[in-house]
Amino acid sequence: MTELSAYQDPSTIQRVLHGARTIAIVGLSSNELRASNFVGYYLKRHGYRVIPVNPRESTILGETSYPSLTDVPVPVDVVDVFRAPDALPGIAREAVAIGATALWCQFGVLNEEGNRIAAEAGLSVVVDRCLKIEHARYVGRMHWLGFNTQRITAVRGGLQ
């Protein structure tokens, strides 16, 4: 198994986050209870252009969904992957073909061949990390006390 720390460098993660404007999410689901939907919603809310890549859907989060990365008609900065690990080599090849600058593999999407394909083509590769969590960590939405929801959530009702 590949040493994951090579694909979890904080400076690479920050560079990808700050340099990205368009993120294609492969495996984005229209089901609001799925992690991919929550991540896509969060990224849209924070100013990224999110492009769904899911052949089973026509629109997700109000955006046109494409069957594959090669069908996306605009340049993509980051390819965020919510698919089974065995699909990663093909996705990495498509990410290279469309000229993406980074391949981001969510928690559990571990495939050495896919990582190697992207890295050898010059893409920044981040593995076994959540794009939403890393955005919150490095762009200021998470503080040492936890997520910054800007709400008080443990208010006591006074003396009883």
Briefly summarize what is shown.
The protein has 160 residues and is of the alpha/beta class.
Please tell me about this protein's structure.
This protein is α/β, with parallel strands linked by helices and about 160 residues long. About 30% of the residues lie in helices and about 20% in strands. The chain has 5 helices and 9 strands. It has helices at about 10-20, 35-45, 90-95, 110-120, 130-140; strands at about 20-25, 50-55, 60, 65, 80, 100-105, 125, 140-145, 145. A 5-stranded parallel β-sheet has the order 2-1-5-6-7, sandwiched between helices. It has a two-stranded antiparallel ribbon with strand order 3-4. Strand 1 (about 20-25), helix 2 (about 35-45) and strand 2 form a beta-alpha-beta unit. The chain is globular, with a radius of gyration of 17 Å. About 35% of the residues are buried.
